Amino acid sequence: MEKETEKEKNIALIGFMGVGKSAVSRRLKALLSMEELETDAMVVAAEGMEIGDIFAKYGEEYFRRRERDVIQSLENRRGVIISCGGGVVMREENVENLKKSSRIVLLTAEPETILERVKHSQERPLLNGHMNVEYIGELMEKRREKYEAAADLIVSTDKKTVNQVCEELIQRLRETD
Ligand code: S3P
User: Fold this and answer.
1) What is the distance in A from the centroid of ligand 1 to the CA of 5?
2) Ligand 1 atom at shortest distance from the alpha carbon of 39
3) 168 C-alpha to center of ligand 1: Å?
4) Which residue range(s) make up the domain with 23?
5) Number of domains, the chain
6) Residue 32 exposure: Cα atoms within 13 Å on the Cβ side
7) For residue 105, what are the β-bridge partners?
8) Distance 68 CA to ligand 1 centre (A)
9) How far apart are CA 107 and CA 165, in angstroms?
10) Tens digit of pLDDT for each residue in 87-139?
11) Which of 43, 99, 138, 174 lies at 20 to 30 Å from 87 by C-alpha?
């Protein structure tokens, strides 16, 4: 079998809640004419429940298992943008699966930027009751090593528009083709 080129792989977007994965992936879909999938939306569709309700009813571990199932189900997909929930790369198994099919792009932002973007959101159970820079910064630090280890490319989103992030991302991916 011919070796898969980088170009044929998916683009998986990873990073902390509120870095802009959904907005960037929607814009990339238009710019690159690629299909786009969100792991959160796939879990919600499979369970017929919102993320907050899944956490409340069955707990985080159950959600993580469903998230893993979704990542596994994408094994044979190519040429798609996969917008990953913020905790996807905490499981090594998910990183290994994504690496086989995707170039992994880590989006980053400072805790202050994240807070601005998520402070009115009710949809992130891990931040309920913890909507402050200190908590966000601590959780981000705990996760940093795993995010960075999984990433093929890191793009900061602070003080950038979605278009600017996409342009930079596309340019830098082209350099690695
Ligand atoms: C989570 C991030 C969320 C969602 C869930 C858990 C996390 O997705 O999967 O609330 O552990 O970081 P977003 O990153 O799209 O907010």
Assistant:
1) 30
2) 9
3) 24
4) 2-176
5) 1
6) 25
7) 13, 153
8) 13
9) 9
10) 999 999 999 999 999 999 999 999 999 999 999 998 999 999 999 999 999 99
11) 174
